[in-house]
Design a protein that fits this description.
The protein contains ten helices and ten strands. Helix 3 packs parallel to helix 4.
Length: about 290
């Protein structure tokens, strides 16, 4: 099975939405045949998740449900979402699932961020308390959200710091350097600060095109030029090693912090996505690069 050279971290991938990935048993066979250690998936029923375990693979993360409801202005919605997700966590824990993936997306994108922050602290705090006895953890990814609001919370260094300060230690980070690079945050410095709270890692990268940044800037959409798939006009998500991320330094910092989790390829790259052959090749190329670092 495949592991990184530095840190000996197991390599898996995040299940995508393409037709060839819909049958979880077939996907698990592909993963096993190509020496991946595990798969991240959505909030599937237990009998579906068991197909990953039956193939001899690890379940890296399972997505939480009702992400925006956990940060709703409505206290009743927050309470209900926390209860539904606590039930999901407890069911999945019977299969040995430890990490649960989420992005802190507010229900009301137009509200001031400070208000949505308070709602999120309450909703995620209720969930963290409810799952405390399961040894399970929440892994928050810093995807900034969609245009035009970019309203997700716990994406920047300051917001992550405040969020983790106000919540117990079973709430941590899904470290994905691609999002940090995209928004201009030093992804190595960030990891140096937060490594002890990193519970899962995505193997994804970002390429920044300096000429296109010069032409179009980093704020407005380009007037005439077409943007990149899985990206914008001056940046795009890529497979690991095709972007700006310093993977050797990343793995060294994770090793020093005694990170015990998986590195899961999240395939979002215009050079590979879109066909079954291309996506399989992208996953395999990502695996080989991560093994070499």
């Amino acid at each position: 099975m495949s592991h990184t050279h530095t840190g000996d971290f197991p390599i898996g991938f995040r299940r995508g939405g393409s037709p060839w990935q819909r049958d979880l048993a077939v996907l698990a066979k592909f993963a096993k045949d190509h020496h991946f250690v595990g798969i991240d998936t959505g909030p599937e029923p237990i009998n579906e998740l068991r197909k990953i375990k039956d193939a001899g693979l690890t379940i890296g993360t399972v997505d939480l449900k009702d992400w925006s409801m956990l940060a709703s202005p409505d206290a009743g919605k927050r309470k209900d979402a926390a209860a539904r997700n606590a039930e999901l966590v407890m069911q999945c824990a019977t299969l040995g699932v430890k990490n649960f993936f989420v992005v802190v997306i507010p229900e009301d994108h137009a509200r001031p961020r400070a208000e949505n922050f308070r709602f999120a602290i309450d909703g995620y705090g209720q969930l963290a308390q409810a799952i405390n006895s399961t040894n399970s953890r929440l892994a928050i990814e810093g995807w900034p959200g969609g245009a035009p609001h970019y309203s997700s919370l716990a994406c920047t260094t300051a917001d992550y710091r405040a969020f983790l300060k106000d919540l117990p230690t079973n709430v941590g980070i899904n470290y994905d350097p691609s999002h940090l690079i995209r928004v201009g945050i030093d992804h190595v410095r960030f990891l140096a600060e937060f490594a002890p709270r990193v519970y899962h890692v995505h193997g994804k990268d970002t390429e920044v095109m300096e000429d296109e940044l010069y032409e179009h800037g980093n704020l407005q959409p380009a007037t005439f030029a077409k943007g990149h798939g899985w990206g914008g006009h001056h940046w795009r998500y890529t497979i690991p090693g095709h972007g700006c991320a310093h993977w050797g330094r990343i793995f060294s910092l994770l090793k020093a912090a005694h990170y015990q989790g998986m590195v899961s390829v999240e395939l979002e790259d215009e050079h590979f996505n879109g066909t079954e052959e291309g996506e399989k090749r992208g996953l395999i190329c990502s695996r080989e690069y991560l093994r070499s670092v």
